[in-house]
């Protein structure tokens, strides 16, 4: 009698766990307002900081596993080349210089600690918030490795 109850409890527990871990279809996620193609699981982990815990289970069922979350390449410096910027946001990033280049499409050049360009990204379709989030993730914040050239026109 006891083993039958235990087996029923175990089966029910496994069914709940299986349901919680199951992925929802693209259509089901869309109905919930979630986009499976663009939703990364690390984004779901941030829901609690916005008091959105009720969305966590659905988010986890619709998200894509972050493939490079443990091995994000970080850069010592970045140079943002734009035609015009009205913001004090660049001050948040000690390794960021802003160059105003008239008529140039905006790009960000990612450099190592000695200033050698490692990657150049076109950012003309990025929002300011997207750029800020990108810099927070990929730009080192250790000011001891930053070398500024105060004689140039860079900010």
Automatic annotation (TrEMBL):
> What compartments host this protein?
Endoplasmic reticulum lumen
Q: Which Pfam families match?
A: Sep15_SelM
Keyword Glycoprotein carried by entry: no
Tell me which positions the record assigns to the signal sequence: 1-22
Lineage top rank: taxon: Eukaryota
CC terms in the record's Gene Ontology section = endoplasmic reticulum lumen
- The answer, when asked if Cell membrane is one of the entry's keywords, is no
InterPro entries recorded: Sep15/SelM_sf, Sep15_SelM, Sep15_SelM_dom, Thioredoxin-like_sf
Keyword tags? Endoplasmic reticulum, Selenocysteine, Signal
- GO MF annotations in UniProt: oxidoreductase activity
Q: Give residue ranges for domain Selenoprotein F/M.
A: 83-138
Q: Which family does it belong to?
A: Belongs to the selenoprotein M/F family.
What is the name listed in the Swiss-Prot or TrEMBL entry for this protein? Selenoprotein F
Source organism of the structure: Notodromas monacha
């Amino acid at each position: 009698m006891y083993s039958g109850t235990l087996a029923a409890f175990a089966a029910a527990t496994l069914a709940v766990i299986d349901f919680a871990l199951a992925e929802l279809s693209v259509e089901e996620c869309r109905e919930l307002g979630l986009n499976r193609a663009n939703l990364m699981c690390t984004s779901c982990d941030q829901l609690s900081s916005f008091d959105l815990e009720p969305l966590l289970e659905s988010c986890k069922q619709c998200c894509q596993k972050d493939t490079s979350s443990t091995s994000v390449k970080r850069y010592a410096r970045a140079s943002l080349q734009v035609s015009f910027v009205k913001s004090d946001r660049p001050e948040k990033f000690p390794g960021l210089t802003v160059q105003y280049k008239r008529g140039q499409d905006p790009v960000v050049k990612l450099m190592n600690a000695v200033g050698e360009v490692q990657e150049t990204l076109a950012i003309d379709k990025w929002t300011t918030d997207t750029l800020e989030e990108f810099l927070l993730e990929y730009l080192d914040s250790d000011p001891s490795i930053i070398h500024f050239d105060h004689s140039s026109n860079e900010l």
